[in-house]
Amino acid sequence: MKYKAIFLDMDGTLIDSISLIMKSDKAAINAFGFEVSNQRLRTLSMLHSRDIAYYLMDTNKKNFDLFDFINFRRRVFVGLLKKHLPKNLWFSDSKEFLDKISKKYKVAIITGSRKMFVSEVLTKKELKNINLIVTSDDVEHKKPDIEPVLVALKKLKLKNKEVLFIGDSTQDGLMCQRAGVDFLAKKTGISTEKELKKYDPLFVASSFKEIEKFLGLK
Q: Keywords, A to Z (predicted)?
């Protein structure tokens, strides 16, 4: 395999946190007097809180305090996170996969989540298998902008063709497409298989076990 590094998304890829994200988004949307369909909610939940607020403002021609919305959504999410014990959110095969790839590749996590959340999820055991973590606090422009990937490439001294990115969303796919990085989709998160295929993934996996076979890991 030509790759020197594996980059991974976190929410919906390594950990099963999409339901918490959607619940906090829905709570904030409802609290500020809006209603969205379940399908629209799923689409909006791929966005950051600020972008969801902009969508509501633009679509409904209604202004409200942007930072009140962001902080409300954040409080709900943190409450859900504490209730669900974040260290138990991992998909059953995620930690084993991290351990296996760390023996052959450089490993980076590129996530739209904040450092606060990442520190709640990752223990010392997982951190020893990760060379770099790029959160939304580390960049000015988040996914699907290419800045998170460029930061990781620069810090790990890699070229885009030396990296495989594994993610669960169209945001991941679009970022990879723009950055010229190979994309492998995992249909355990926010986007459907049909949506993911629009971004030309190498294939769409149901689990890390399938990805291990693709990479030839034992």
A: Hydrolase
Angle between helices 66-84 and 18-31 (to 10 degrees): 140
Model confidence band, residue 167 (pLDDT cutoffs 50, 70, 90):
very high
Residue type for position 143: K
3-state secondary structure of 16: coil
pTM to 2 decimal places: 0.90
Rg, the chain, Cα only: 17
Please give the DSSP secondary-structure letter assigned to residue 179. Answer: H
CB 8 within 8 A of CB 110: yes
Q: Where are the alpha helices (DSSP H) in 32-161?
A: 38-44, 49-60, 66-84, 94-102, 115-121, 124-127, 147-156
Only one residue has tokens 């972008």, namely 51
| Residue partners of 46: CB distance under 8 A and separation at least 6 | 169, 170, 171, 190, 191
Q: Locate 52 and state its tokens.
A: 């969801």
Residue where the block lists tokens 């594994």: 166
